[in-house]
Specification:
Number of helices: 4
Number of strands: 0
Low-confidence stretches: none
Distance between the termini: 19 Å
Order of helices and strands: HHHH
Length: 70
């Protein structure tokens, strides 16, 4: 989340992480990101281990994200 968020302050970072953790929502600054990337971020931060993609799955998705949605 922090890699893509470009947060200005620690408080903004904390609020964004809480929003993701408590409500499973990404901050509005992520609205302009490719939809597949937003979906991947939500999956990667899931509290359910079975919902999280493996590193191989993430690697396989990245070309699709940047070729198909930008």
């Amino acid at each position: 989340l922090e890699l893509f968020g470009n947060f200005k302050t620690q408080m903004e970072t904390v609020k964004s992480i809480k929003l993701l953790t408590n409500e499973r929502k990404l901050p509005s600054k992520f609205d302009n990101m490719p939809s597949l990337l937003r979906e991947l971020l939500l999956k990667m931060t899931s509290s359910e281990i079975d919902e999280r993609p493996s590193s191989r799955q993430v690697r396989e998705m990245l070309p699709l994200i940047y070729e198909g949605d930008m």
